[in-house]
Please model this.
Amino acid sequence: LDLNLPPTGVFAIISAVYWTDEMRKTLAAAIDRIIPEDDYLGAFAAEAGDYIERILAGDLKHRASGFAEGLASLDAEANARFGQGFALLTAANQDTILSAVESGVVTTVWQTAPREFFRLLLELTAEGYYSDPGSGGNRGGVSWKMVGFDPKT
Amino acid sequence: MIEAEYDVIVVGAGAGGAIAAALLAEAGKSVLLLERGRWMGYADVGRDHLRNQRLPRYGHNLGPPIEGHPRVFVSPSGEERQVRPHEEGYHNNAAAVGGATVVYGAQAWRFVPLDFRMASTYGVPEGSSLADWPLSYEELEPVYERAEWEIGVCGDGRQSRLLGQRGRGYPMPPVPDNPERKLLGEAAGGLGWEAGPVPLAINSVPYGGRPACIRCGVCIGFACPTDSKNGTQNTMVPRALATGRCTLVTDAMAERIETDDGGRVIGVTFFVAEDGQPKRKSARARAIVVSCGAIESARLLLNSASPNHPRGLGNEFDQVGRHLQGHYYPGALGFFEQETYDGNGPGVSIATWQFNHGNTGIIGGAMLANEFIKTPIQFWHRAWPPGMPRWGLVAKRFMRDNYRRLVHVQGPVQEIPSPDARVTLDPRVRDKFGIPVARLSGTTHPETVRTSLFMRGKAEQWLRAAGAKTIYSGAIGLRLSAGQHQAGTCRMGSDPNKSVTDSWGCVHGHDNLLVMDGSLHVTNGGFNPALTIMALAFRCAERLAKDL
Model:
């Protein structure tokens, strides 16, 4: 079984993920540290979270369960180090956790490789913020206005 | 309706095959034009920034479909893996009516005279298969001109000591100036480098019954919203069909070229979709033209083995599929204080051809040009300076402050071919039709890396002279090169032991089997190869139409 290929049949069903409110809160908090709000929308308000749910149910279905495990581990890591779930931490503490995950230096046991999870989180957030609104994120083309990309058509 | 017999069957309606079909049909021949892809208009191609030829994160906007059409890639260390069309190692070339010309950037360069004489100019490096072409720039000049006028190219048409002599200018003036052309033009002047507008198969003014470019900025990797980019899908295919003598069949995948008991080529067996199911068909013809791109053309010839041709057609001397090459693209990113992007496409606007040849101690060289406008997500992936934080407010601010301040200069290095960079048939993996797939292995010759490092230095020098405040460039290593500029797998030559076709694209030992695509290129020039593919198709198809 090649894990890099999208699953088919029974494997596709096994890898589908049910998104709980807790997962969504963790995801929202994490992507808003990847691309925070300033005078332009942050990643969550720009619907990068919707993009991520959508891509993990589609082209990246085979990575959905690993991603869900990563979100759970992010919460567990936050609890272990700061006594609260990730979404409830201060921005500075959230950044501390994310930096630790990015460099792979974690204190809890992760079911999924922390650095790989971070890379996926980072790339999907960027895709949900900077790619075309038709892909499900970049609400109203907010990032394109910010950078000055005006495709005319 | 597919007939039992045609004068000619052309396999592949891309840059080469569509020209062959048009010229033959216009000369009164009946033509069956088989294309594995489909008609892909602007709406079909779409504007998906994550699924396109420039950033194929999850797929492509043209064929082949990502499932059912694998290849096998063998890494330099011998590790092999099965890859899909949008994955690294596949070396995809878009499948559609018009081939990759539907979505290309449309740089329409001629090769220069020395490009045809690489071996006699530089000698043959140990381990390389560097060779001269069996024809000269002067012989191609009239068909370069034909391609420029019949496809439609804009440019300034200057005469230059460094470029080949031109019989005539371009049919259209260059696309308008942009800030990058001014910046880099002045810098080149100061350095004493010859530079000028990039020739593009884009309508700078209305041409061919289609309007001028609106400068939308989403050009390369996508179809044109105003049909102002000239490929074969909006020039030569319509010409072929207008004769009433060309039958175009899309979704048609060639399986093999058939030969008779004497070994003579007689027809093609192919699959078409009928009621959603692949159905095997065959048709006969007096001549067959293979125009599938360098990887798939080699695959088709190799898949056409028969008792008379046990190693595949044209492969008696084990040459089909070898010398696979493309273009290394060394370059550098320069960030400027001022905005360098004014919101107008296509972006690419100025090039220098100062370093295509004449570089002391270096074999060949490259043209350098500024890049097309990057989509924002492509910028995020490809233009990130080393050491710059990847996330947080600093990263967001970097995007905001620099998207319009980047000048990316790069260019296609004339590669030094290796006989070991090659296409063979994978002994196990088959596509959805059951046809053995291409297996890609080997690397380019180390001299390609040396030339690339030299050109990277020139890109940095140009950006520095233009006033870039910071300049970055990437590492360059030895690897297989092919991609959208794939070439060389059925090289032309006069010696049948060392080449696959003669200088008219005719496969040695066959008078009715021809190749017309980048496979013919002995070397691939230090320029984008599309116009040379087109010029060769004009030359070879014109001759075939006379002979047949």
Summary: The radius of gyration of chain A is 16 Å. The longest helix of chain A spans residues 64-82. Chain A touches chain B through 31 residues (CB under 8 Å).
